[in-house]
Task: inverse folding
């Protein structure tokens, strides 16, 4: 059973708003399920930005990835505690373009996170810190997330320019 569309809209809006706030340029946000294999049913926020191979770029990718489930949970009125399993799935998607793998360990190696944090406990603490940073971004930008989600519900797909107009109208 697919998730209710309002939850999906808030999830994608969370990704879009945090991406824009971190300086990425959203090209498209949609709640329309894709039929593309290997992820049929996946909705998307497509982001364009200067590809950098430095830690801040990887960190931004992870913050953007975490923003979706955090916005969805906030909309549902339920807390979403940090969970390594959930973290692995979203981070692997965030750093997919670095390693071409949905496996977190492979993607983390390709992104250089294994070199940055060789100790598993330190790596987990870093990921938890990013989770909390993303939660704060979503909370501070909640009016913008709601505005983008409402527009996604009305139109189903938004261009980057439409996302930016929603953010501006919400006071961003």
Result:
């Amino acid at each position: 059973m697919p998730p209710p569309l309002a939850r999906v809209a808030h999830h994608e809006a969370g990704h879009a708003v945090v991406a824009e706030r971190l300086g990425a340029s959203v090209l498209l946000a949609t709640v329309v399920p894709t039929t593309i294999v290997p992820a049929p049913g996946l909705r998307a926020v497509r982001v364009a930005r200067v590809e950098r191979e430095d830690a801040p770029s990887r960190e931004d990718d992870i913050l953007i990835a975490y923003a979706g489930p955090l916005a969805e949970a906030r909309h549902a009125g339920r807390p979403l505690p940090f969970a390594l399993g959930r973290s692995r799935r979203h981070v692997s998607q965030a750093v997919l373009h670095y390693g071409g793998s949905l496996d977190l360990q492979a993607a983390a190696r390709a992104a250089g996170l294994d070199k940055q944090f060789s100790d598993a406990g330190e790596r987990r603490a870093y990921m938890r810190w990013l989770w909390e940073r993303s939660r704060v971004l979503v909370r501070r930008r909640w009016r913008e997330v709601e505005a983008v989600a409402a527009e996604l519900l009305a139109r189903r797909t938004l261009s980057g320019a439409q996302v930016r107009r929603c953010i501006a109208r919400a006071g961003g």
